[in-house]
Design goal:
This protein has about 300 residues and is an alpha+beta fold. The protein has helices spanning about 10-20, 20-25, 40-50, 120-140, 175-190, 195-200, 230-235; strands at about 1-10, 30-35, 55, 65-70, 75-80, 90-95, 105-110, 150-155, 190-195, 225-230, 235-240, 260. The strands form two sheets. A six-stranded mixed beta sheet has the order 3-4-2-1-12-11. A six-stranded mixed beta sheet has the order 5-6-7-8-10-9. α4 (about 120-140) links the parallel β7 (about 105-110) and β8 (about 150-155).
Length: about 300
């Protein structure tokens, strides 16, 4: 079984102070895809501990962006950028595992954007570059390469099920028709929103809530942190869960980790019903059966 967790940490140093190590020790993912780390690779490795191999794309502007792939096993074939975004720290990819169990991992952090501004122009450009690269990765898989997993903070609510206050956000970045159409094009091309497939046609489960107001307590959130995978890997997904903190004060970020368990080639699907790691787990990596999935992202758009 391969357990992959993705989370926008909103600064790895701050997340560490707020309790990320305790979550990491309980969940014990095999691969950790991080966004908005806001630190260099040495600092990320220091805060994760000695058991990790880390590849990071660092933003040239200190204290901004930064994405990383961290794995319990060595990484190879690392790519640190998309063309045209070499200094942005928003895309990193690497291969994890060997032979038939190899997976191409991508950690991505899409711009938040702002309708009608240059920020939105940059977001549209980045999504176009990402779409092009995703086509190349699918072609590489078709030619005998590993299946692909892209996860991260995509800063787009795909459907009305993915944002609590969707009516109030129809003209705002994060829920614009042209942004949602990009995700439509990915899924039409064969990519799978694996958490949505596993959760079914339900509201959420959300993964981001504003720090402000009562958004977290009222579960007024956005589902913008996705695992987007090729079909070969989607078929091996057994369970997913949003590790929503038990209380507002227990959060280590304004995003919650999104965790998916994938079977190895030839293995049976992981079938334990997930529960958030905010409640004790019976064993490392595998959630206890019998508890509901919690989660939810706000009228204020994500940053």
């Amino acid at each position: 079984m391969l357990v992959v967790a993705s989370v926008n940490v909103n600064g790895v140093r701050a997340a560490h102070r707020r309790g990320m190590p305790a979550w990491l020790e309980q969940r014990r993912p095999d691969v950790l895809l991080l966004q908005e780390v806001r630190a260099d690779a040495d600092t990320v490795a220091e805060h994760l501990g000695e058991d990790w191999h880390v590849a990071e794309a660092v933003c040239a502007t200190k204290g901004r962006s930064g994405v990383a792939v961290a794995s319990r096993t060595p990484l190879r074939d690392v790519v640190l950028t998309l063309p045209g975004f070499e200094t942005d720290g928003r895309w990193v990819e690497a291969t994890v595992g060997e032979g038939a169990d190899a997976v191409r991992m991508v950690s991505a952090y899409v711009h938040s954007g702002e309708a009608g501004t240059d920020k939105q122009v940059a977001k549209v450009r980045f999504l176009a570059a990402a779409s092009l690269r995703m086509g190349e990765l699918r072609a590489a898989e078709a030619a005998g390469g590993p299946p692909v997993l892209l996860a991260g903070d995509l800063n787009i609510g795909h459907t009305e099920r993915d944002i609590k206050n969707w009516k109030g956000n129809r003209k705002k970045a994060g829920f614009l028709p042209e942004e949602r159409a990009v995700l439509d094009s990915w899924f039409a091309a064969g990519w799978v929103d694996v958490c949505r497939r596993l959760a079914g046609d339900v509201e959420g489960p959300y993964s981001w809530w504003s720090w402000r107001g009562q958004a977290f307590d009222t579960d007024t959130g956005w589902r913008i942190d996705l695992h987007v995978v090729t079909e070969a890997l989607a078929a091996r997904a057994g369970w997913s869960v949003v590790d929503r903190a038990a209380t507002y004060d227990a959060r280590f970020s304004d995003h919650a980790p999104v965790v998916v368990a994938y079977a190895g080639v030839g293995e049976a699907l992981p079938v334990a019903e997930p529960r958030p790691v905010a409640e004790p787990l019976p064993e490392a990596g595998a959630p206890e059966a019998g508890a509901p999935v919690a989660g939810a992202p706000v009228a204020d758009g994500p940053a």
